[in-house]
Amino acid sequence: MFDAFYMEKIFNVPRYIFMSENFKLVLLNQCIADVEQKIEEVFKGINQAQESIESDTKSSAGDKFETSREMIQQDLNRYHEQLDKAKRDLSILQRLDVNSISDTVQLGSLVRTDMASYFIAVSLGRTLIEDKSVMVISSFSPIGRLLLGASVNALINFNGKDQVVLEII
To answer: 43: domain CATH number?
Structure first.
């Protein structure tokens, strides 16, 4: 397999893209802040829905009242599901050790391939840290499952495209 120096020359990708020593900590803190913001937004939705239920008064159109109340209850149920997921995500993020370094990709790894950079944590999507784009993904996502256990120079195929693992932090 190719070494990182060779990959740098072939793909014109610098070996050490994560310049600052605390890049992983900054990334983790941004993820935590994003999930905390999501929790706050969900709480606002729950409060609004509960206020709607409380302010709804039964009118002469009983079926309309019940339908409205049921729709609000469905919204509340969705908000509670989102809240549970966000709390689980926050718990996972808070348990990650950013100082942990492994030869293989694991939960909490920051992985750079020749095509993208990934943070194996929870599904949050693309984030920008220090002008660098990082995909924050779950270990249960399709690409996360492919990356788990991979080591530097490993070749993975995702969506018909090969990617080489260049760096694991």
So the answer is: 3.10.50.30
Which residues 6+ apart lie within 8 Å of 101 measured at CB?
168, 169
Rounded to two decimals, the pTM is 0.82
Could you report the per-residue pLDDT of 4-50, keeping only the tens digit for each?
444 444 545 444 555 567 999 999 999 999 999 999 999 999 999 98
Tokens of 15: 């070996």
Q: What is the DSSP string of 121-150?
A: ES--EEEEETTEEEEEEETTSHHHHHHTT-
**C-beta of residue 165 within 8 angstroms of C-beta of residue 150:** yes
Residue 29, judged by CB atoms within 10 A of its CB (0-12, 13-18, 19+), counts as: middle
